[in-house]
Design goal:
By secondary structure, the chain is an all-alpha fold. It is built from 25 helices and 2 strands. A two-stranded parallel sheet has the order 1-2. Helix 4 packs across helix 10, helix 15 crosses helix 16 and helix 17 crosses helix 18. It is globular and about 70 Å long. The chain starts with a helix and ends in a 6-residue tail after the last helix.
């Protein structure tokens, strides 16, 4: 497909603005390593929050939602909607602690919380494991998604796509390496606005096209069950309604959100979400930024994609289940006029760049702060650290390009990451609330999922093929991995010595965590924990009801608007009352 002059002009202007921001923040990022990776710890909550949302809006996100809706209706989105509980847990239980810790990366917390050689090993191991290995897998799947878009939109031969991806990554690496987190965060804001505006415009145009004819015609022509917000659990569904067995439903709703490490939804916070919290001006900004992130991520972003996905079910009925995600790109190609094609392409490039820039900056922060500075060059000055950081960004980019060329399916990478992080989450949560957790707890919880994954896929699956299925089809291997990992780290914790008292005492004095810290505090405030749990649950209800109120208004289901509206108002009032009592939004 050929683009017009105005389409190319819009794309060029966007790239020029991005590189300009990189140059603008180059000097500030070069002050010291804290400025490069945390923006000088001076971001307001709304910049940090939008940056979180922009990072989780990648080039693959609308395509993934389109595939879920095509195969299972709106309810298919529970594959990721279930993670809201973990995100809200971070908001009310951990955001304040992350900002209070004043560490440069979340891995630096390891040697603040634990002691001895196990702590040093864990920090170095996780710097490579998460900063390089897991990071390049994530970058790889985002690259593969962009390749799908480019192939459909421009009919680029498959063997040439990697060169286009390499060019895109060079551009992202340039402004990431120049400007550090400040440039990444401020370009995230611009990129998110463009990406959301493009998504909304596409949804309006396609919905009101002659082929669809508005929301009422859309509803009447969709397969039965497509518009249900909730899956049919343990019973027969109809049409494209998502039907989950009881075990799969429990895996999604009750276990996955706290048990699995997943980028952007780490239990207890972590990764680039912790990086954004630590970069804010204050503890209050850290809390507000994560609360905004959860609301925007689950309530604002999805509906433009869902509407286009529903339209694509009607417009492209011949797409196979495997190719159904391409319905979104085909709608862009078929319905957008000159100028808007360029805008939507910029929206996708913006989503892609915001994700890749964050992954590069975050991964490099591990590589430099937690490996290079800690084990290789402990006396490095500021200039050397900044130079190493910029080189590290390029190294991760190059590794990611190699990995991208080896990835065949996005879903395969996603399933691998979810299952190989299963069981780790509870340790990351409890290390803040139970003094007895030690470095061996985390080491075992990080390594054992690989053993369990191998047993499930290559041993148990040989006798029972259902062990090789994904979590959505049959979660046997997921349950096994979570149970085996949890039992293993609990045994390891009880059989090994606790962290030394001096380290624990310093950690407690700095963080002032709630929970069981009996050697350092005679008693703990169970009432405060209860109030935080009420805040957490009411915030979850608030977010879900906001999501479903918005959807009900768009679909003109007015009785549902009333029902979810009552839940929204009730949960908001409860959250406001209890949060004031517990002073969750008060500084210090």
């Amino acid at each position: 497909m050929q683009l017009a002059f105005w389409d190319y002009l819009i794309i060029i202007l966007f790239l020029a603005i991005t590189l300009f921001i990189g140059l603008k923040f180059r000097k500030q990022a070069g002050k010291d390593i804290s400025s490069f990776f945390l923006g000088g710890r001076n971001l307001p909550w709304y910049i940090a929050g939008i940056s979180m949302v922009a990072t989780t809006f990648a080039a693959d996100t609308p395509l993934a939602v389109t595939e879920l809706v095509a195969q299972n209706g709106i309810a298919g989105n529970w594959l990721w909607w279930n993670m809201l509980a973990g995100g809200m847990l971070t908001t009310f239980f951990f955001a304040r602690y992350w900002r209070r810790a004043e560490v440069l990366t979340d891995l630096e917390l390891i040697e603040m919380r634990y002691s001895g050689k196990p702590a040093r090993f864990l920090r170095g191991f996780r710097a490579i494991y998460f900063g390089v290995f897991m990071n390049v897998l994530i970058i790889g799947w985002v690259n593969v998604a962009l390749m799908s878009l480019l192939q459909v939109f421009f009919d680029i031969p498959a063997d040439q796509l990697i060169y286009y991806i390499a060019a895109a990554m060079v551009i992202v690496s340039l402004y990431s390496a120049m400007s550090g987190l400040l440039g990444v965060a401020f370009t995230d804001v611009i990129q998110f606005v463009i990406a959301m505006a493009g998504s909304i415009i596409l949804a309006i145009i396609v919905l009101n096209s002659e082929q669809i004819g508005g929301i009422e015609n859309l509803k009447s022509n969709l397969p039965e069950g497509s518009l249900s917000f909730f899956p049919a659990v343990g019973s027969e569904g109809s049409g494209t309604m998502l039907v989950l067995g009881i075990s799969s439903f429990l895996a999604f709703i009750s276990i996955q959100w706290w048990a699995s490490w997943y980028p952007g939804n780490e239990p207890g916070g972590g990764g680039y979400i912790a990086q954004r919290m630590m970069s804010t001006k204050s503890e209050k900004d850290a809390i507000y930024s994560t609360l905004f992130f959860q609301i925007a991520h689950y309530c604002i972003r999805p509906w433009p994609w869902i509407i286009v996905a529903l339209c694509a079910v009607i417009l492209y009925p011949d797409l196979s289940a495997e190719d159904s995600k391409l319905g979104y790109v085909m709608a862009m190609k078929d319905f957008l006029p000159t100028g808007l094609k360029g805008l939507l392409l910029v929206a996708f490039f913006a989503a892609y760049m915001s994700t890749i820039s964050t992954q590069l900056n975050w991964g490099t922060s591990y590589l430099i702060n937690d490996f290079y500075n800690r084990f290789i060059n402990t006396e490095a000055d500021n200039k050397t650290q900044i130079t190493a950081s910029r080189i590290g960004t390029i190294i991760i980019m190059l590794i990611a390009l190699v990995v991208t060329s080896m990835i065949t399916t996005i879903s395969g990478v996603w399933a691998f990451i979810v299952e190989c992080g299963a069981g780790l989450g509870l340790v990351l949560i409890l290390r803040w609330y139970w003094w007895r957790i030690n470095a061996w707890s985390e080491i075992v919880a990080t390594v054992v999922p690989f053993i369990a994954y191998g047993l499930s896929k290559f041993v148990f699956a040989a006798y029972d093929p259902t062990w090789g299925m994904g979590i959505g089809e049959n979660p046997k291997s997921f349950f096994f991995t979570v149970g085996f990992t949890t039992l293993s780290w609990i045994v390891a914790t009880l059989l090994t010595k606790p962290t030394d008292s001096e380290t624990l005492s310093k950690f407690y004095d700095k963080i002032k965590p709630d929970g069981n810290w009996s050697p350092f505090r005679p008693s703990w405030n169970s009432r405060r924990l209860g109030q935080l749990i009420i805040c957490w649950l009411s915030a979850i209800a608030l977010a879900y009801s906001s999501l479903f109120v918005t959807g009900s208004i768009i679909l003109k289901e007015w009785s549902d608007v009333g029902l979810f509206g009552v839940i929204l108002i009730t949960s908001f009032i409860l959250l406001r009352i209890v949060s004031k009592q517990v002073e969750i939004f008060k500084e210090g």
